[in-house]
Amino acid sequence: MPKIRLSGTVIGIHDPNREMRGRMLYQLFAGGWDIYNSNGDQRITLSNIEAKILESDAFVFMPGATLEDLFKALSIFVGYQTLDPNLKGKAAVILNSDGSWDPLFSLLDELQRLGTIHQNYRNFLLLADLPNEVVAHLEKVDQEGLPDVGREKLDFAADHSFETPLPPGNRGNVCVFCSASIKDQAYIDDGYALGVALAKNDYGCVSGAGTTGVMGSVVNGSVEAGGWTGGSNVPHIIEIEGLPTGLSSFWLRPDIYTRMEVMIQRSDAFIIFPGGAGTVQEMLALLIFKQSGSDLMRGKPVIIFNRKDALHGVRFWDKLIDLLEPWCQEDLFVVVDELEELIPTVDQLLADKA
Asked: How many Cβ atoms from other residues are within 10 Å of residue 55's Cβ?
């Protein structure tokens, strides 16, 4: 029988989502599905999430969205965007009967408007208000499959990692999470300027080792300014985007979760530059680690670059900050509005940590 992974956690007999979960379980069992996490007691981490995806044939996200639920749903969508073969033909349905997913949808709508998401996420993260609608979505995907995301693979592959020691005088590594798809030249120029600034201030630059958009420009700026530049990527994304030239160190990983893990391990601070669904996913991972007290993020500052978008008259990450407000204390991240403030903010936060 096909297996479905159900998100969410049931908190005692008075949990307001308990009845809806029971109705959902009935509909799925009646529809011929075996269910993982039916009791809501399984934990998913970066180290085991890919295994959970492999063992599942579809995914249902329940009402009462938590930060971890948002992370997992975005991870599925990013997998669709990057042609992850382990997600081929697997449906993801969100039961939003309580409206708890609305802030995420509002953010994704904004990122589509700003040009960092090119697919209609509503064709991939399928919305439902009632359990029977969830089953209808699952049946439709089973019969028709998922839409084409509009990306093609290149004749390019990487088969090994390599390492160059940090140079004398290195003050720490700053990981830049950002868009690989945005086409607005002003954003790309800002990315290049940040890469140059990191190198000139003796910071190593860690990235997702992409060649396009802001990600490619950050790498180019650091490399061309003589900086140490490290990055991590996975085979199925490299087949789409290739790898930049000039990396000092490269860590090949099998999936996007272990890719994030090594980037976090090798970094001392993080800048959330304008980006898309993948950047939001990475931001959520950082915050989940911080909130759990993980050694991976202990003492490592997170800076959101809330850049003004002149064309649309908004600050890029306002919707992300709104999304995070119910879950995050103010000391989990710092918001910076101007490009010129990023390096001084990194300086100050790392000095405070020391």
From this structure: 10
